[in-house]
Amino acid sequence: MKAKAPGIIAGALIVAAPLVSFAAGLPAPFEGSSTLQADGFVKSVDQVKHSVTVLDAQGGEASFNITDPANLAQIRQGGKVHVRMVRNAVISVTRGADGHGNGAQSTQPNTARNVSAEVQTIDHASGIMALKSANGAVFHIQGREPAKVAGVAPGMQVMVAFAQQVDVAVAPAQ
Q: How far is CA 159 from CA 53, 56, 99, in A?
């Protein structure tokens, strides 16, 4: 029973964090998604496991578990492919552009699923934000409901909690 207590406490803190952000006058957390698209060459294909290993133009290698196997039968070793990954996220503003806010930090370690970032630009009409992580990488998130990002402005600090599930589709490149 004692082993479950830290998990329960951490879960309660995660659930309460959005309420604290909202109470501090910051925009309420909102849902969004990040889409990554890239072209590469197939190093290997595993039809049974629905996985593909792809090499990019710089020689980088990445393996993907395909969640949409519709085109998998058309994928061949050495062939050129287009990879599309979509990952859902919840975005919470932790500090305003003026530096004020609740100063809350994620109770989870800063892993690939939780990223602290600064809003660089935002298109309020589409809900698309350019975010810059602590390591300098710039990535984009599109809010599901543009009206919910109305209170977000460049310079604000956000915590992006990515969903564990990633939707990946691979198709032969045209």
A: 30, 29, 15
pLDDT tens digits, 125-135: 999 999 999 99
Report residue 133 CA to chain centroid gap: 12
Residue 80: pLDDT above 60? yes
103 pLDDT above the threshold of 70 = no
Q: What are the extents of the domains in the chain?
A: 4-35+86-166, 39-82
The 3-class secondary structure across the chain, one letter per residue, is CCCHHHHHHHHHHHHHHHHHHHHCCCCCCEEEEEEEEEEEEEEEEECCCCEEEEECCCCCEEEEECCEHHHHHHCCCCCEEEEEEEEEEEEEEEECCCCCECCCCCCCCCCCCEEEEEEEEEECCCCEEEEEECCCCEEEEEECCHHHHCCCCCCCEEEEEEEEEEEEEEEECC
Mean pLDDT of the chain: 81
